[in-house]
């Protein structure tokens, strides 16, 4: 019964995602899996090996980060009576910058983020980073593969607390779940494309090829935010391969959509500020976290950030953007997806 419920939970998503299937030709779908997104001329030089990977916060990166935080410019104070209605309340930035530079233990957080087995493998010219956790079960127990996809302003960090719950074997269920959690192309520790065109549809093909690389011809998937849009496309493109689909993002009306327009039209300009200033990066990401958590949080001077999250977890997430300077390549996903090429498919 539990296995049946796991499958049936995907039904609505499958129906919604498959409405445009008649517009897609086999040639189009097959072609998506063959597009090369890496540097030209290296098509025959890339290994298909699956390589162990560990997150590393280098001393050089930490020193530079602290210097930028400690030498930040004084910001404009908020207007009287304004909390988060105009964006991140700047009265809170000193607390967060002090915590990041002086209380965030980089060594302990690095160990925390490396608690699960992590790997990289090259898919269509891009090194894709992913977490893979297998349940400990008797040999005769069915293990179901589950691909879990994050969005923006998130990262694989979203799933750290849920991975042990999902992969814990319950004999009553009669089956277990193995999770594969990739950093989306251009996010975290996954490569971004070297040329335009890698949007939600194309990412669906890349991540399906990742699952094929791992030996899964059929699998379940879960997605939130942009991960949901990508998973929708996986269901549409590969209906025979997706066993079930769950999303926590079936419909969303975001309280502040200005960031979407900016990231869909001028991602590289935004990226100049976010790459240079950790304060700017933190504020831009966390205003979205606040707005996406509770609509009422825009009337809170602290954005409600302390209600649902601890400070370490929020800065962990920001580190997935700062460590390898991935803000720009991450938000290009908006420009590559919210366009006529995508909507016309």
Brief write-up:
With 345 residues, this protein is α/β, with parallel strands linked by helices. It contains 16 helices and 7 strands.
Search tags:
single chain; 345 residues; alpha/beta; Rossmann fold; 43% helix; globular; disordered N terminus
Q: How are the secondary structure elements laid out?
A:
Blueprint: H1 2-8, H2 11-17, H3 26-32, E1 51-52, H4 59-70, H5 93-103, H6 106-113, E2 118-123, E3 126-133, E4 142-149, H7 163-167, E5 175-182, H8 200-213, E6 219-223, H9 226-237, E7 242-247, H10 258-265, H11 267-276, H12 278-293, H13 305-308, H14 311-322, H15 327-337, H16 340-343
Parallel strand pairs: 4-5, 4-6, 6-7
Antiparallel strand pairs: 1-2, 2-3, 3-5
Helix pairs in contact: 2-9, 4-5, 8-9, 10-15, 11-12, 11-15, 12-14
